[in-house]
Specification:
Largest sheet: 3 strands, antiparallel
Number of strands: 3
Number of domains: 2
Number of helices: 7
Distance between the termini: 35 Å
Strand order of the largest sheet: 1-3-2
Structural class: mainly alpha
Strand content: 5-15%
Radius of gyration: 17 Å
């Protein structure tokens, strides 16, 4: 199946309003999928990947059947629709907080791309140089700012 998640832009342990607004709505889906016999919970061996995931990360493996593919498609659309609703209703980030948030976001994109355990497999398939370029493009290292 893969992984579907919302990466927080704040500290969830002490920003309870953010936790309730963005993560509580997905909690029932998370709990329901935990007991879905078609799916197996995927737990990364990487401590960083586990830290990066939210408490409601939908991260599973399963046989590629019509049922699981339809479930994945449905969850992906629900997740995207929910996120687009949040974007439409988003409040502006105060001017004095924008630089710090942009720096944090860039650091998270870079670190998560560079520490992805899958990079080893990519290097074996595509070679080290192409993998470095792919990883750099994932976090936006080639963008002109």
């Amino acid at each position: 199946m893969g992984s579907i998640d919302y990466i927080p832009r704040t500290e969830l342990l002490n920003d309870l309003a953010y936790l309730d607004r963005y993560y509580e709505p997905v909690n029932q889906t998370f709990l329901k999928l935990q007991s879905d016999l078609r799916l197996k919970v995927f737990t990364s061996k990487s401590v960083y990947v586990r830290l990066f995931q939210s408490p409601v990360s939908l991260c599973y493996t399963g046989a590629p059947t019509l049922d699981t593919l339809e479930l994945t498609r449905t969850l992906a659309y629900e997740t995207l629709d929910r996120w687009l609703t949040w974007v439409d209703a988003a409040e502006h980030v105060p001017e004095n907080a924008r630089d710090a948030l942009a720096t944090r976001d860039l650091a998270l994109r870079r670190i998560s791309a560079e520490r992805d355990p899958g990079n080893k497999s990519a290097a074996q398939m595509f070679g080290s140089e192409l993998t470095k370029k792919l990883v750099r493009s994932l976090w936006g290292g080639d963008r002109i700012l």
